């Protein structure tokens, strides 16, 4: 009996122990499940709150914030005061509004009249326009009937105060150019692609489209049947990156003064077009760039001729004529083939293997001359003599070194290059007709930028600086890229450039270009009047140019002035006086002390 009791007691104890073990196992499993669920929840919360923080922040803030996160702001472009470093916006984004009417809320004729009257007062509607708007907003069931586009915020605020039925407003950014026509071809404009997207055209807006535009973001998310975002479903969110800002080298004051002086002169001379460039020869920075006629980028689609978009300083090559003569002389001086005092007798005509003899303007004969006299009097026959002393292939080599026949790399949209291809036609060493005419700027072409850059090398001791117009690129992440002035190459020696500079001073002091003088300073320069080539040969129309720099002993600027088809005979009466006026302003603007 006692054994049976003990056995039963042991069985009971074992059973109780087994139940305790099972209960403990169940508790452990439950705890593990709770821990696992907790870990999963923590991981999901980390994924949502950290890894997808931007998505949910934007989503919670509403559609406007989400729009801003997906669509980048276009970068701004600035012009400067090169003396103080002060900056001024040249291209920025501005918010404007589309005004629409939810016609379902315009319930009575009186409501419609009130809306129309308010719009008419704000936008100066005539009776016909008022009737048109009334017919569109009354008696229809359209939730969105746009009535005005690109409206300023001040007008919108005044309309909001009237609490008119159905009147709504949609804000959207547009490109705005606060300076209007100032540097229009240089800045370009923002137009539309075929699908309605914004895209930069011409100038800075076109060349730097990718940097200015930035990059858009994207959003991919799963939605429920009710249209809401499923919180735990997979999704992708990449925020937009705003475009970069750009600071130009252009000086706002010089740009305005120079271009306005050109505008007045162009009208006075009845010229077809005009171009002006001011370059710092020691750095290559462009301080002014004028192309006329111009346009207002804010209303770029209102022009009569789309060719006005082209920047003639970089887009339009032309036969430069006599302003090219210093390039030929530079090579001959540098090769010690001539000196400023080398003797030359001008008979008024020279045979250079052309179909007819080469002569001087107006068939003049200058007889006993020096190389300085050749430049002073702009003697074509004398330049043929100079290139004969230099030789054809060395002449070509110097032109290539001066940058003719290739782009300067200014990093503006629509830069083209002139051509010196005629010099490569004849492979022989002898100076042929093409070489002879090229020596005084005929039969070859160059852009104004190429010419002012080449003169910059003469002004800068023979060192050609790479021209540039973008001083800084300021990225949205705070990184700044600054342009460092760069020597492209040594074209001629300092001695040769000094000799040529002195000869060009004589052109103004004693030669035909006295009107280009700036009192108190030694100014170097050269005129050029060149007939315009056409399909049937040269026409009676001419291009007038003047290129110069000053002060000659320590140049602060190089400037080119050009007019197309002015109603005056020679550049000495058109381009030269504009050069003198703008040059005198530059000396005063930079406080350059007189040196003579």
UniProtKB/TrEMBL annotation:
Protein's cellular compartments: Membrane
Domain Penicillin-binding protein dimerisation, first and last residues per copy: 72-220
Record keywords, A-Z: Membrane, Transmembrane, Transmembrane helix
GO cellular component entries: plasma membrane
Transmembrane segments: 29-51
Protein's name in the database: Penicillin-binding protein 2
Biological process, per Gene Ontology: cell wall organization
